[in-house]
């Protein structure tokens, strides 16, 4: 069931759109912000509220790489794997992250602290290689920087 | 040398806020247009300036606007495409974070020209600072009377919203962007009808790039002759150019349109890092053909780069050095494009992963001599006219040019059954 706060936020979005289904992405963002990910139950709840089929909501939810359809950790690491970061050595960062966190892409640490994901170009190519953790951008990275950065997230 | 778009952005990268923007003449173009100009005069001025879109395609902005039907009732939309996601591109970030009101003023002027009722900034998820600054700027512009009902006492009204995306490169394609704004999967739409006639929610819609829209206030204030005088070539204005890769000073600079690749690389990016040699570059993002050291004197404007066999694209160059494997470089690009294909049309959905797989096999020493012909066939069959949108043809540009310029590297991978480069990074 959607919470009162989720319903209120989605209702607010509905005032800005000419048809209910146009709020689908906003609704997914709202629920994900509250619950970290979108469960089957959330898909069905959003579908009911926006008068859409669950399949239609799921087709949208699964299209976008930053809507998570399985549980994720408390913090999301997005490692840029695009061309400038490739040239500047992001693969070394990836290797180091695997070693520190003992997880691969798409996996979550056992303590649910981090989920590691590759991400397309973060748009900071003059400071490659780069990654984001939640809303924070880290640039000009060396593998040796990683442990200290990860320490900030609990 | 004039730098109209970036001269007021503080060196520390902080945003120019409303009062600071007004202090350097901000919103004077809007006052002027609403007081002295008909909407059609704004369009005509932009057309005469021959402003070309800075998002990658280089389509004439005034021309695009002229397709919007005027004098029809109901909503019309103006959208700033701030979904900067072309690999190697980081120019709009600078404008969004540093001078948000310049974009807003351009959007309000563009909306006035086409008589739009609602405007949206479609911003990519990753640009958190830009989101904060744009949200603040929109709120401040409402408070100051630059947005909302009867702007500055005129008959013109405009509502503005910020939309932050949830990923996917496809959202940068203008019709896919419209689908995403409608809450749908970001797949491209058939054209015609063009968005100018039937766009967001089936209403007339203009989608322009951030850098393009940031020009409008300057053109309204200073005129078309001034705009053309900023450039070294027939394509007017300045351009935000960028360089990334193993150069001494990677970065972005606002420079006269039409400077040469050599000036950009050597004077602004400080040349190659010690021990690294320049082998080539994608002049304007991931979906542009390689240029090589034979092209260093090419003028970086739309016509100049096209004549050299590539595209100006976004104007942000990615450099290939002699320690980086060209096959691995192209594999990285094709991995990106295969992943970002929306899956709607078959050649793109099937062809891009196949291309990626062949390049992967070359890198891993299992490539066959026939693979080169297979790659060439893909470059042809995924080229312009064979796919639903420009994603796959764009993906083929670096591949086809790499096969041309770095052919010995491809052949060496097959012959030696391994990647000859030491780092061998994947």
From TrEMBL, chain A:
[2Fe-2S] cluster binds at residues 80, 85, 121, 125. GO terms for molecular function: 2 iron, 2 sulfur cluster binding; metal ion binding; NADH dehydrogenase activity. Its cofactor is [2Fe-2S] cluster. Belongs to the complex I 24 kDa subunit family. Binds 1 [2Fe-2S] cluster. Gene3D superfamilies: Glutaredoxin (3.40.30.10), NADH-quinone oxidoreductase subunit E (1.10.10.1590). This is NADH dehydrogenase subunit E. NCBIfam families: nuoE_fam, PRK07539.1-2.
Automatic annotation (TrEMBL), chain B:
Gene3D superfamilies: 3.10.20.600, 6.10.250.1450, NADH-ubiquinone oxidoreductase 51kDa subunit, NADH-ubiquinone oxidoreductase 51kDa subunit, iron-sulphur binding domain. Its EC number is 7.1.1.-. The keyword 4Fe-4S applies. Keywords: 4Fe-4S, Flavoprotein, FMN, Iron, Iron-sulfur, Metal-binding, NAD, Quinone, Translocase. GO terms for molecular function: 4 iron, 4 sulfur cluster binding; FMN binding; metal ion binding; NAD binding; NADH dehydrogenase (ubiquinone) activity; quinone binding. It is an enzyme of class 7 (translocase). Transmembrane segments: none annotated. Its cofactor is FMN; [4Fe-4S] cluster. It comes from the Bacteria. Residues 327-372 form the NADH-ubiquinone oxidoreductase 51kDa subunit iron-sulphur binding domain. This is NADH-quinone oxidoreductase subunit F. It comes from Chitinophaga eiseniae. The lineage of its organism: Bacteria, Pseudomonadati, Bacteroidota, Chitinophagia, Chitinophagales.
């Amino acid at each position: 069931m959607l919470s009162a706060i989720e319903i209120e936020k989605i209702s607010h979005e509905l005032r800005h759109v000419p048809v209910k289904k146009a709020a689908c992405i906003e609704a997914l963002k709202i629920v994900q912000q509250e619950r970290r990910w979108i469960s089957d139950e959330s898909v069905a709840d959003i579908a009911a509220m926006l008068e859409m089929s669950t399949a239609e909501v799921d087709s949208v939810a699964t299209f976008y790489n930053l809507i998570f359809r399985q549980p994720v950790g408390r913090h999301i690491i997005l490692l840029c794997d695009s061309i400038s970061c490739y040239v500047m050595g992001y693969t070394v960062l990836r290797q180091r992250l695997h070693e520190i966190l003992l997880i691969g892409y798409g996996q979550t640490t056992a303590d649910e602290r981090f989920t590691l994901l590759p991400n397309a170009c973060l748009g900071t190519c003059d400071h490659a290689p780069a990654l984001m953790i939640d809303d924070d951008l880290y640039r000009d990275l060396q593998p040796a920087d990683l442990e200290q950065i990860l320490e900030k997230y609990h | 040398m004039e730098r109209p778009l970036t001269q007021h952005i503080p060196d520390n990268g902080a945003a120019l806020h409303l009062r600071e923007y007004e202090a350097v003449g901000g919103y004077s173009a809007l006052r002027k247009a609403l007081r002295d100009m008909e909407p059609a005069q704004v369009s005509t001025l932009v057309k005469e300036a021959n402003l070309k879109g800075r998002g990658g395609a280089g389509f004439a902005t005034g021309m695009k606007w002229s397709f919007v039907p005027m004098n029809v009732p109901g909503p019309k939309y103006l959208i700033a495409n701030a979904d900067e996601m072309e690999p190697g591109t980081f120019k709009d970030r600078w404008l969004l974070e540093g001078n948000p009101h310049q974009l807003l003023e351009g959007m309000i002027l563009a909306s006035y020209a086409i008589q739009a009722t609602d405007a949206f900034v479609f911003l990519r998820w990753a640009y958190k600072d830009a989101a904060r600054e744009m949200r603040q700027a929109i709120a401040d512009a409402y408070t100051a009377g630059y947005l909302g009902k009867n702007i500055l006492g005129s008959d013109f009204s405009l509502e503005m919203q910020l939309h932050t995306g949830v990923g996917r490169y496809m959202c940068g394609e203008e019709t896919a962007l419209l689908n995403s704004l409608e809450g749908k999967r970001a797949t491209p739409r058939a054209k015609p009808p063009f968005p100018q006639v039937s766009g967001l929610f089936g209403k007339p819609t203009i989608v322009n790039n951030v850098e393009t829209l940031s020009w409008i206030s300057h053109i309204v204030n200073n005129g078309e002759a001034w705009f053309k005088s900023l450039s070294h070539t027939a394509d007017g204005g300045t351009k935000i150019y960028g360089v990334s890769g193993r150069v001494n000073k990677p970065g972005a600079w606002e420079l006269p349109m039409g400077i040469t690749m050599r000036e950009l690389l050597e004077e602004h990016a400080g040349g190659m890092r010690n021990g690294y040699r320049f082998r080539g570059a994608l002049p304007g993002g991931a979906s542009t053909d390689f240029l090589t050291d034979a092209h260093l004197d090419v003028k970086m404007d739309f016509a100049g780069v096209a004549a050299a066999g590539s595209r100006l694209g976004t104007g942000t160059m990615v450099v290939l050095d002699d320690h980086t494997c060209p096959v691995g470089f192209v594999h990285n690009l094709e991995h990106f494009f295969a992943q970002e294909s929306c899956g709607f049309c078959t050649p793109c959905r099937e062809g891009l992963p196949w291309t990626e797989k062949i390049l992967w096999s070359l890198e891993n020493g299992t490539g066959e001599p026939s693979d080169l012909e297979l790659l060439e066939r893909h470059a042809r069959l995924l080229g312009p006219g064979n796919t639903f949108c420009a994603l796959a043809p764009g993906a083929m540009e670096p591949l086809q040019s790499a096969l041309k310029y770095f052919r010995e590297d491809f052949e060496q991978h097959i012959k030696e059954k391994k990647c000859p480069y030491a780092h061998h990074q994947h």
